[in-house]
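Render this sequence as a predicted structure.
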Amino acid sequence: MNKHMADWWQSGVPWIWLNAAAVSASLVMVVGLLALIAYNGLGHFWPHPVWELEYRAADGSGMQHLIGEITDEEETSVERMRHAGAQLPENIGEDLDRFLLKTGNRDVSGLDFRWILGPLIVKRDKPEKLVVFERTEWGNFYGFLKNIKQDGKVVSEGEAAWSELQSRLDEVAAVRKQIRHIEKSEIGAVNYSIEQLRLDRRRLELDGDDTPERLAELQRRRDALQAEFVGLQKKLDAKYREIAGDSVTMTAMNAQEVDIPVAKIVRAYRPNGMNALQKAGFYLAKLWEFVSADPREANTEGGIFPAIFGTVTMVMLMSIIVTPFGVVAAVYLREYARQGALTRLIRIAVNNLAGVPSIVYGVFGLGFFIYFLGGNIDQLFYPEALPSPTFGTPGLMWASLTLALLTLPVVIVATEEGLARIPSSIREGSLALGATKAETLWRTVLPMASPAMMTGLILAVARAAGEVAPLMLVGVVKLAPSLPLDGNPPFIHLDRKFMHLGFHIYDVGFQSPNVEAARPLVYATALLLVLVILVLNLAAISIRNRLRERYRELEQ
């Protein structure tokens, strides 16, 4: 028996099973973590029931009428609550449930979340006519629809007001879309052109070419743009007036009546009266808004499209920068450098660079790329814009360069290992057929090593897409006024600041003024960041597999 056990241990089978168990446990933990993130994040967009409660105040001040969503619950003890300073009735018991109620109406009550105790709830109900408003500011509003007013006069009441509200909200949404187009596209383009004219005039002054003829031409173009701007501003004011006169009267908690401008309402719905199909449609609409719209309410409402766009754009630029530099460095170390103590020292340094904390790269990028390179670029090529910096300030290009430097060791190591796996007989055969060393490298060695290059790029993308610390110093912001890509020449603006999914998670989770409202969005954004990294990696893996199959056939 002992001999069989000894043979079994020496065969290595236990270690195989141990590795399999470790891999299985890792997969279970990863899947479990993703499931937890998905549950907490994606569940946020489902229309939850809204409760109407009769609540006996714990301080003995009487009955309260509450309306809101129950977003969390927990079990606690009376002793713990009293130790924390809570005032509780004497006959409440020892253990109790308490609920986190999202009451909304922050502009009325000042807070949109409060904890309530289960034993003090006297009555609860889910009225079908209870209305939820999503607003452009002040968060959600909960209450009952009383009437609709136009220019201060009641035009609809009761159930007819509900259908009237939906039609008016559709009109407001259409006008709001037109307003956004005028502000961002048309007025934005005019302002950009006016700023370019200002820079052109300053450039002429610096060059001494500010002749009366040229200045007159610039002034003529400026007057035309200014006239266009005035016309667009009048058009914009007219659009705002179209939606300014309508308001809704709501009955909120404790029978308080509140007038809400229809222009401030993004969406109105009755979650308690929805069937399953209506809830599914609402869920899909909210999910689409999350991935396609701009954020609002200090990033705790709306969508995160600018953050998605900024993340993908930065990773693509980083990949374009890091790949040639990493490949050239690896080719030199493997194919051209004399293998000796100096080369070994360089390899050790490259490997050590992979372990340097990312914030160190951020500090380096701030000092070298932004202050030194960017400052000198401004002095040489953009003197007319000074003292306002163009490239001497954090932006998309410097963030991409910093992350390219951060991921460079990964690409170098992976590419060099790929070059080392190519048999020397292939190089010798190419040289024997009359090819030069450069031709052998370009036409034979590098194509066969391309799968290893793609492996390095995959690892670089996976690390760069999730980095946050260096980006805080070299270009990422809480809210970017415009995307790095637009219709104004040169169309791609590498000097602009941008939003990033990783920083968005940090900002919403730790810097938000409304932590409870922001918590579900942290999970949803984290899940989306994982999906973005997964899609980028799958694209790179697909390219690598195609290259691998192609050159495997050539090898055979």
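Summary. Residues 146-285 form one domain. The radius of gyration is 31 Å.
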